Model the fold of this input.
Amino acid sequence: MAYVALIPLLPAIAFAVLTPLSRQMRNRVRWIGLVSVGGALALSLAAFAAVWPGGSEEATYRASLPIAQVGGVDLNLGILLDPVAAIMLLVVTVVGTCVQVYSLGYMHRDERVGWYFAVLSLFTAAMLALVLADNFLMLYMAWEVMGLCSYLLIGFWHEQEAPRKASQKAFLTTRVGDVGFAIGLALMYATVGSFEYDAVFAGVGQWAPGVATAVALLLLIGAMGKSAQVPLHVWLPDAMAGPTPASALIHAATMVAAGVYLVARALPIFEASGIALTITMIVGVTTALVGGVIAAVQHDIKKVLAYSTISQLGFMFVAIGAGGAIAGMFHLVTHAFFKSLLFLGAGVIIHAAHTQDMREMGGLSKHLPWTTWTFGAGALALAGIAPFSGFWSKDEILYALYKGEHYVVLALAAAAAFVTAFYVARLWFRVFTGPVQTDHLKEGHAEMIGPMVLLAGITATLGFSAPFFSEFLGHAGHWPDPLIAGGSTAVALGGLALGYWAYGRRTVVLNTRSLKERAGYAYDALAKKLYFDLTYEYFLIKPFMSVTESLYRFDVKAVDGVVNGAAKAWNGLTAVSARFDLAVVDGAVNGLAGSARAAGRTLRKIQVGRVQTYQRYILGAVVLLMVWIVVKGA
Amino acid sequence: MMQVGPSAFMALAAVLFSLGLYGAVARKSAVMVLMSLELMAVAVSLNMVALSRFVTPTEMTGQVFTIFTMVVSAAEIGLGLALVLAIYRQTRSIELTRMDTLKG
Done:
């Protein structure tokens, strides 16, 4: 079973191989990323088979590698392969492989495609490590690496301003959550003295009152940042500035689900607290509603999907908060498949229509048949129509609420489901029906359509595994309750019908302006995303900027003044030294050279080059010599 | 009858040598300078022959040496003329005042 460790290592190796290469070389061997993720997928299948049929403790595999000792306590890199981890492995590797194949077609014209695949591989490695971690510290490490990859991929086109800003926003916003996470881990370590899941959960009942709640809430803050829950959701819509396949993998299917995974993993702590579960539920249902209604007024197709993702993640939190962790995990799995399918479809649509604005699209169903059918499967799953997977998982969430007697939350969740169906219908009719507004509509490449067909197949069939999913995770499974299933289908159909009434009929088109006039203030509020960004801008970013501004001024005047003064003094000293050097040292050297040159200049005058002149010199010399001899001799 | 002693020969030789020296220093033409050099060599040879005849009449040292000198100066004049010809081919001139490429 040691091969389990290879699952996250393979993509990590791909990253390590790709990174040091030159850009051209990296672009040429970009398939390394795909091969590594494909290998991880094969190993994940083997791991899944090894865990099968699940349901009991014997089915888990553990291994750990000590890396350090702190205060007598071991810190380990550990692997815990249990049914939950096995399922997550499959989700991550299947979606990861699909996205890598799709990206070969989507990104093939980009200059830095090799780097794109390298980061995608690193991300996959981190997500797989997070899933397999057997302690919170390793989970946190993988968590942060994913944050880095998310930052890199959102800002992939960093020549443009919007992606650059969006990547910073995403990094800083999730950082707010991560600080909470880190404090929670510190508190946990102070209480238990270990990060291992088993050690932490074993004594969770004996913790001092309030500690469990504090740890659970701090972990929840981390999860809210990563999973884009209100009020830390603002980064996810902006994250759509990155490449669409990366959005599909990171900002729809896997990374944003890590928060849900964290809460599900740390469930014993939340259960020990009790109140933390209720808060999780409240956060979740708020997010589900807020995300849904904002999605209903967005015009950018990717933003609609982004708010939809926020809303669906809210559903997962609701489920876990209501005691239906299995339902939450199941929704995570189904959502990962159908939402990545929708994002990949959106990528094809954006390539074909050359715009992301749905108002400029229309009638795509005639020209993009494959995209239409696969996108339709994903859209129906998102709306919650049987037999597509979203219906089954949403049904389980509503059932968990019903069984837990959270009737108010149930009503709110139903309302969110209604809005979900409405914006799905709005998107569908805007994009695929109506008049064609763009010329040269072209279907995507085969390597783009293939993964979408696979994901559509999974979306259409995965729902039927709902009862077995529970049993695999060690709980009693059940088929949908007729009352809940009927109610949720009615709600979804109602939402779709309203969407059709508003956007689907050719004769009466409810355009943005008329909706604006009817809804007035409420529409404005929604179109401005309920003022979340403006609030942050006004109360956090502006004061922060003014503080940094004054600090900057202090820096310029006081700190720089001292530094510049020292520099100036030193400058003066060196000037004196330079003058001495020039005058005395150089003077001596130049003087020597100058006198030699002057001597040469004088002496060369007698070297006239004429033989007869030299003869005259000789004659003169001989005469002088003879005179001297005569005088001396006499 | 006028006695012709060695001093008469030596005076003639001195006149010849002075003419040659003047020519070698003052003439512009390379050919004339060569001829002047010959004149100086002839003056020296005359001295040797005369002194040999008057100082050591029994030995022929001066005469023999003069034969050698004539041979050497014949070779020397051949070489000198060859040089003059080569220079003329290069510069189309045999004026010594123009030959100052060695000027420092």
The helical segments of chain B are 6-26, 30-55, 61-91.
